[in-house]
Design brief:
Cytochrome Bc1 Complex, Chain A, domain 1, 627 residues, 26 helices, 13 strands, alpha+beta
């Protein structure tokens, strides 16, 4: 099971909560820094190891230096798609006979690439018209016809094509549309029927291939060997595969992860691509995702942070398996990966196993790096999105990241503005003026490796307006420019940030992410500790200077989600407030948090996870209403 961006993102929230709940005694940053050991194999793969012998478990991860920011136009979303495909097995895993599978992979690839070409030849406007017509034909199947085809996609497509070909003359909705069916001697309807036939044949070949496949073998091996946390996630800056295992199963991690780095086989590519495209469709119906995409697309005009991790639908439709293989071979190489091992292990054993399993994998050419720098913004940008969901405000200011010294000042500014119940926006906008339905949020986004944004989000409380909320937030920002924060406030904020890191360092997972991402993003596992040292040195004068330099109208992007009435007859369902849900879970006893997380881990489908998420959301609303 993978953490899929845009899918619900509840699991990512639960991970953060459980990482804190599972604390087994925090380590001071300086003590931890001394415990971190690092070594690099001859092929360039770096390993970071932290020995913690409190419990006989180990957290293991392989972090690849590739994410959505490494993509380019026409292939957006490929990093996330590849993450899905990495669970489909290898030449060793997930198969009874790989050689007998190969012809099926080759034939489905040929058909899949033909569907891409046909859709391009038709043009999207024709395809959409034909596809809507075909859905109507499918829905009009008689009960006997539905019974005859059952769930067999090949038989369904064969019957669909036969019924459309038998329509003589064609219905007016096709025949009367100029240049739709035929233009300059080209029969575009026939191209569409060839497209539908190809998809039926792909389905038939996949059904035949399954006789040689072992479904979810990698997943089963990990879980049957005591894994209680098998996951992966893709972000703008990285892709990470991770497992929590009994310490005596370290070799299993080394064996399976090295195998899928070297010999991944992307089985079921064409059907899994459809799964990712459906995830994309879900995002298009999520009001928060819609607003976020519009906001970041406006805030970034050059840098790849402007597109979503899940990618654009038109790009997903044209990615084929050969392109995915080339992407994997470019970025999934030892010298572009970091192994992270934290727990009841020894450095010597980790090194011995790493050399045995990862060592033989050849070093690859250095992957291309992101060189585009977002140009200075010269004027305010505003976005207005109309939706039936409640109004929402997003406000962002371009800012630097570490090692720029001003990055630490922004960590302080974020906490001063929205760092809990003592923060300024909480006390004024939420508590005193009661302009918002929940406390405003502020933080770095959409990534952390390249210059990003300070993003502030707020939900107006009825009957207050977006204008009122925006004005109140800007008032607080102006105070930062004109009035120095008090020494007491500054000290409190620094203590909060310090306490947050100490809590994070209370679990194997938190330690792994702290040192691992420091190494991945900045080339030094000590980076996040250096950031903390810089935060402690931030002065009130620094806050005023940075606020005046960066928090300006010309450096600002604002997005509003304006509520409009739903169309008559249009259905809709309440959206889950992810931030509020995470806050609710964090209030529960640690044992209950762990139970929730374990149940979420056991669910196999998006539908099951969504249903459980809704159940938790109802509890969260009831708890809030009872206060």
């Amino acid at each position: 099971m993978q953490v899929r961006k845009g899918s619900l993102l509840l699991l990512a929230a639960l991970v953060a909560v459980v990482a804190i709940a599972a604390a087994a005694g925090p380590l001071a940053a300086q003590t931890l820094e001394e415990k971190v050991k690092e070594f690099t194999l001859k092929n360039g793969m770096t390993f970071i190891v932290v020995e913690r012998h409190e419990a006989p478990v180990v957290f293991c991860a392989v972090a690849y230096d590739v994410g959505a920011a490494n993509e380019w136009p026409n292939v957006t979303g490929i990093s996330h798609l590849l993450e899905h495909m990495m669970f489909k097995g290898t030449e060793m895993m997930g198969t009874k006979n790989y050689k007998k599978e190969l012809p099926y992979l080759q034939r489905t690839d040929a058909l899949g690439e033909r569907t891409i070409a046909l859709r391009k030849e038709m043009g999207e406007w024709r395809f959409e018209r034909f596809h809507e017509f075909a859905k109507g034909v499918l829905n009009a199947f008689t009960e006997d016809e539905k019974k005859a085809v059952g769930t067999d996609k090949y038989e369904q497509q064969k019957l669909l094509v036969a019924k459309i070909r038998a329509m003589k003359p064609l219905p007016d909705e096709l025949a009367s549309a100029p240049f739709l069916v035929e233009d300059q001697g080209v029969d575009y309807l026939e191209k569409y029927l060839e497209y539908e036939t190809a998809w039926g044949e792909i389905s038939k070949l996949l059904d035949e291939q399954r006789q040689y496949m072992v479904k979810d073998e990698l997943w089963g091996l990990f879980m049957n060997n005591g894994s209680r946390f098998l996951n992966a996630f893709t972000g703008n800056d990285m892709t990470v595969y991770l497992e929590y295992l009994p310490a005596n199963r370290l070799e299993l991690f080394m064996n399976l992860e090295s195998d899928r780095m070297e010999s991944a086989v992307f089985r079921e590519f064409w059907s899994e691509r459809d799964v990712v495209m459906e995830e994309r469709r879900l995002g298009e119906n999520d009001p928060d995702d819609q607003l976020g995409e519009a906001f970041y697309s406006a805030a970034f005009t050059a840098h790849p942070y402007r597109w979503p991790v899940v990618g654009w639908m038109s790009d997903l439709r044209t990615i084929d398996r050969d392109e995915l293989i080339r992407y994997h071979d470019t970025f999934y190489i030892p010298n572009n990966a970091i192994g992270i091992v934290v727990g009841d292990v020894t450095v010597d054993r980790v090194k011995k196993l790493a050399e045995r399993y990862f060592g033989p994998i050849p070093r690859g050419p250095e992957p291309p790096r992101v060189e585009t720098i977002e140009p200075e913004q010269k004027g305010e940008r505003r976005v207005v999105l109309e939706h039936t969901a409640n109004p929402k405000l997003m406000m962002g200011f371009h800012k630097p990241v570490y090692p720029d010294p001003d990055a630490a000042v922004f960590d302080v500014i974020s906490s001063v503005l929205a760092g809990g119940r003592t923060s300024r926006l909480y006390k004024t906008v939420y508590e005193e003026k009661q302009l918002v339905a929940d406390e405003p949020n502020a933080g770095d986004a959409p990534g952390n490796r390249y210059n990003n944004l300070l993003v502030i989000e707020a939900l107006p409380r009825n009957p207050h307006t977006l204008e009122e909320v925006e004005s109140a937030i800007l008032d607080e920002i102006e105070k930062l420019k004109k009035e120095p924060v008090t020494s007491r406030e500054l000290e409190r904020v620094k203590n909060q940030i310090d306490a947050s890191q100490i809590r994070q360092l209370g679990s194997n997972l938190g330690i792994a992410f702290t040192v691992g991402f420091g190494r991945l993003f900045y080339g030094d596992y000590r980076a996040n500790f250096r950031i903390m040292e810089r935060i402690k040195q931030v002065t009130a004068e620094d806050v005023m200077r940075v606020a005046n330099e960066y928090l300006t109208p010309s450096n600002r992007t604002v997005a509003w989600r304006v509520q409009v009435a739903a169309e008559e007859g249009a259905g809709g369902e309440e959206q889950i407030d992810r931030q509020a849900l995470m806050q609710f879970i964090a209030t529960l006893p640690q044992e209950e948090q762990a139970a929730i997380f374990q149940k979420f881990q056991s669910l196999k489908t998006d539908a099951e996870r969504m249903a459980f998420g809704k159940e938790l959301w109802e509890r969260a609303k009831a708890a809030k209403g009872a206060k």
